[in-house]
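Structure first, sequence second, as always.
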């Protein structure tokens, strides 16, 4: 919005709210895929070290690249005609579309780069730095 010279307005807030909804939905799916990949690796006994945890998280994140790219591409294709429009009401609609266009790009990068890193820190903290093959007193790996 700064690059386009737009001020924050009600139309801009509508675009931001729409972006937050789309990002929350795709973020939940990323966490679902990370959890599924982690649980599958744990169930198959492939979580013996922190390197195995890294591999499981990367495997889960890679499964989300194409769906996220398709979501961003479809939304961008729908929003670009609004950004290029010049007719009646275009000034308002551009302010709705602008935060979504910029936010989709940053959302794409955050979901594929930042979310898996935070998930790794979360799961690493959960298991600690000890070897994953050594069960604790209760016999579990937590």
């Amino acid at each position: 919005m700064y690059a386009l010279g737009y001020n924050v307005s009600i139309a801009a807030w509508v675009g931001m709210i729409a972006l937050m909804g789309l990002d929350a939905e795709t973020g939940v799916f990323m966490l679902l895929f990370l959890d599924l990949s982690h649980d599958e690796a744990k169930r198959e006994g492939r979580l013996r070290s922190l390197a195995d945890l890294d591999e499981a998280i990367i495997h889960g994140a890679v499964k989300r690249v194409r769906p996220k790219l398709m979501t961003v591409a479809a939304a961008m294709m729908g929003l670009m005609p609004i950004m290029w429009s010049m007719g009646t009401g275009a000034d308002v609609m551009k302010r709705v579309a602008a935060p979504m266009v910029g936010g989709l790009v940053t959302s794409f990068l955050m979901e594929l780069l930042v979310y898996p890193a935070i998930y790794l820190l979360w799961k690493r903290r959960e298991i600690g730095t000890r070897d994953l093959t050594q069960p604790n007193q209760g016999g579990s790996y937590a």
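Margin note: The chain has one domain: 10-127.
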